[in-house]
Fold this sequence. Notes:
4-stranded antiparallel β-sheet, transferase, Fibrillarin-like rRNA/tRNA 2'-O-methyltransferase, 13 strands, tRNA processing, RNA-binding, globular
Amino acid sequence: MRELPTATDGGRPSLPVATDGGRPSLPAGVERRSFDGRERLATRGPTVYGEPSDGEWRLWDAGRSKLGAMLALGMDTGLAGGESVLYLGAASGTTVSHVADFSGPTYAVEFAPRPTRDLLGVAEDRQNLFPLLKDARKPATYAHVVESNLDVLVQDVATRGQAEVALRNRQFLADDGRLLVAIKARSEDVTADPSDVFESVLGELETGYEVLETERLDRFHEDHLGIVARPR
Ligand SMILES: C[S@@+](CC[C@H](N)C(=O)[O-])C[C@H]1O[C@@H](n2cnc3c(N)ncnc32)[C@H](O)[C@@H]1O
């Protein structure tokens, strides 16, 4: 049986990386800065969701962003800054706006029309952000737009079959790319124990990816598991 971290302990050890006082380095373009006396993540860009700003820096609220939570919890995402990104489940652009602030070309897939309208507004301020009103379960419908050999696949889709979505979109990722996914247990099964759901999702994911690190995100997002993986 795999040893999954509990909601309170840390994830498994990750690969050796450059560290910043024991924590993995943040990508270039992401900093820990002081907001109201607390050290918080921040990126540089136009504000999007009413987040506080300090000059050109704006707070990246880990309570509203699973990827922000993964970085805030010290997971080794492998992000250096400047990567090409496919982001699945962009909603109205809260997290993907921060990703576009420190990345290269950023393709943002969302299948609900209402949030995608907001996402279009977010993209107007960001030349490298490309919103796509598409279903992440059907990558063939956007394969003609999204480049291949991408550095990073970020996934935050609140839908059943989250492992399957990651596997279907593996085709866009370079062989040495990274999958950064947040799994929402309740989207798979509202009644099951989240640990059992995560176990099952990881088992499926491992048919196409090597899992490098997992961490429960409960401090910021209840019953979510953050996963860093790379294609097999
Ligand atoms: C938790 S929200 C994402 C929040 C967003 N990642 C952020 O942090 O700003 C999940 C989103 O996934 C979208 N979604 C669910 N299934 C999807 C699918 N098959 N294709 C594209 N988007 C999907 C939902 O419409 C919703 O906007």
